[in-house]
Amino acid sequence: MPFALYSPAFPNGQTIPSRHTADGDNISPPLEWRDAPAGTRSYALIVDDPDAPRGVFHHWAVYNVAGERDRLPEGVTAGAKTESLGHGINDYGHAHYDGPNPPRGHAAHHYRFLLMALDVDALGLGPNATVDEVRKEASKHLLGEAELVGTYAH
What we know:
Pfam family, one: PBP
Keywords: Protein kinase inhibitor
Low-confidence stretches: none
Mean pLDDT: 94
Structural class: mainly beta
Order of helices and strands: EEEEEEEEHE
Distance between the termini: 36 Å
GO molecular function: protein kinase inhibitor activity
Shape: globular
Protein name: YbhB/YbcL family Raf kinase inhibitor-like protein
Strand order of the largest sheet: 2-9-8-4-5-7
Organism: Azospirillum argentinense
Number of strands: 9
Largest sheet: 6 strands, mixed
């Protein structure tokens, strides 16, 4: 089986529930994965919107997710920090998940959840690393990728 990422909250290619958007509770959806590549020691996850008017907009990056894991619970970065996960600074300037919030009147935007399986236990990034810096560092250790796409419009 190929490395796969999915969410109990929405099927691939379908609408992200408002609970997981800026219009709702703005909490990350639950994510699960299976069949990670052999040798996976950690994961990094990036969420972006390639349909944004000014180019790709970064909504979330979380990294140093332990290689034994096969899921991230709903709202994993909401509230007090309870895990030692790394968080990239998104394009809102926040080190946490910020859900879909496309401009009103736009057709549905596509939100890419990209999970990267890595060959290292941790990425050596500082506390102010941006989503792009997380992606760049993760790409040096990439064993495989799995993608889930959700859509959303106001």
